[in-house]
Structures are given as structure tokens and as C-alpha cells.
Amino acid sequence: MSEVIEETQAEKGHSKVAGAASKAALVGMSMMGSSVAHTEPHADHGYAPARWTAAAISMVGWLVGGIAFPFGIWTLVVIGGVLQIVAVIVNLAMNAAGMGAQANDNWAAAKAEAAAARAAS
């Protein structure tokens, strides 16, 4: 009986951690203009120029900084970190320019609807 109770408590602890991590991820994703605002499941899988561009810049920054770090080439490590910040800025700018969603999505209406739903709850 105690094994069942321990498993249940462990599952509860895991679900609390997973729930907190999920909420944190949703906040970050919505800040980046993610498809979380969509009410239809799988309406947008991230096939947007803004997301692909930001991911490519971020990957280059990660590679530059990650390869340079063990060798102590601090200039390249800093450049890699700066590229991470540039990726966020590029993503936000491209989202604002209308390149954050597929052309067939009504992105502005979905974001407005999601904002209204958050305000109501």
C-alpha cells in the first residue's frame, strides 16, 4: 500500500513540475509569436519565415559560441551570445512585419481572440 502512495505522490510531483514547465514554455512561446494563439489544433506548425530565420540565426550563434567556448576564444563566445539576442529581435520584427504566420492563417484575429480569452479568465 505504501508503494502505491509513494508512486502517486511521485506522479503528483512530476505533474506539478510538468505543469509549471508547460506554463513557462507557453509564456515564452507566446512572447515569440507562437501558434499557441490558434484555437484550431495543428493550424500552424511553425512553417513561418520569421521562425525559420530566427532558428537559423540561433543555430549559427549556438555553433559559433559552443565551438569557441572550450578553446577559450571569448570574442567568438560573445558573438555567439549576441546572435542569440539577434535571433529574438529578428523573430519579433518579422512577426510584426506579418511574416510570423502562414499566408492562409488569420493571424491577427487569432492573436486578438487569444488576448481576449486571457483577459476574460
Characterization of this structure:
13% of the residues are buried. 72% of the residues lie in helices and 0% in strands. The protein contains 4 helices and no strands.
Furnish the topology, listing elements before pairings.
Layout: H1 2-31, H2 49-68, H3 74-96, H4 107-120
Helix pairs in contact: 2-3
Name a few traits of the molecule.
121 residues; flat; 0% strand; mainly alpha; 2 domains
For the termini, the CA-CA separation is 40 Å
Strand content: under 5%
Strand segment count? 0
Radius of gyration: 19 Å
Helix tally? 4
Q: Mean of residue pLDDT?
A: 77
Instruction: Work out the oligomeric state of the chains in this entry.
Output: single chain
Number of domains: 2
Sum up the overall morphology in one term: flat
The main sheet comes to:
none
Percentage of residues assigned to helices: over 70%
Order of helices and strands: HHHH
Unreliable residue stretches: none
Secondary structure category: mainly alpha
Please sum up the structure shown.
This protein is mainly alpha-helical and 121 residues long. It has two domains: 31 residues; 78 residues, no CATH class. The chain contains four helices and no strands.
